[in-house]
Structures are given as structure tokens and as C-alpha cells.
């Protein structure tokens, strides 16, 4: 688990953000939602978008979406919002299982395929929150700095 990780039980609806279109079903759709949100904020504030920071947010959204699909039975909800100096990405899935970090090699010393998504999310995010949902499943919210 990330060092920045917090787990809490959510009652009612999430306090996170406004919906920006249909729920993504694929990582590419999650990335496009993040691009739109950041582009809207940059236009509204007439500021230049930091491309390196945007790349980090795109990677985090992609990894969260991929993990929800591979390990959580699919994306059940998705929100993105630009808040202050960062972008908050929330991805929900139907699994109660918390993300785990696996060693890069197995017990026989062979390199594992995959298993890099959660460490990437933890490294690029300033804050990561895992919230249990009242009807089962979880919501993972990551705040990625945009500066």
C-alpha cells in the first residue's frame, strides 16, 4: 500500500466533483476525460498547461482504470476534477480487495509480468485514498500535482 494511503468508509454519495461525460470503460477513455478536464481548466484560467504534469495525471488515470478492469471487475464509477494545483482522479470498482504491491520477482527469482500500476500511482500522486463503498466495492482517489 502507498505511504500516503488512507482507508475510510463512505456514507452516501462522494463529495468528489462533477461528472464530465459518460463513465469510461477503457483506460484510453479515462485518459481522454483527464485531458478534457485539464484543457477546460487551462482555457478557463488562461494558463499554460504543464505537459509533464499532465502526463503524470494521464498515467495515473490509466493505471487506476486498468487496475479496476483487471482486478475489480470493471469501472463502476469515474470522476475527474482539477482542484487548485492538482488533478483529482477517482475510479470505483466492485471489488473490496485493497491494492497490493508484489515483489518484482517471484519465489524462484523469475521476473513478474505486470504489477507496476499501483507503485506508479503511489509515486506520482501527492495523496491516495481508498474508500470502501456502502454497497460494496471501493473508490480509489489520487491527487496528482499539476505543477
Automatic annotation (TrEMBL):
InterPro entries: Anti-sigma-factor_SerPK (IPR050267), HATPase_C_sf (IPR036890), HATPase_dom (IPR003594). Residues 13-32 are annotated as: Disordered. CDD domains: HATPase_RsbW-like. Residues 17-32 have a biased composition (Basic and acidic residues). GO terms for molecular function: protein serine/threonine kinase activity. Transmembrane segments: none annotated. It holds the Pfam family HATPase_c_2. Keywords: Kinase, Serine/threonine-protein kinase, Transferase. Residues 35-141 form the Histidine kinase/HSP90-like ATPase domain. This is ATPase. It comes from Streptomyces resistomycificus. The lineage of its organism: Bacteria, Bacillati, Actinomycetota, Actinomycetes, Kitasatosporales.
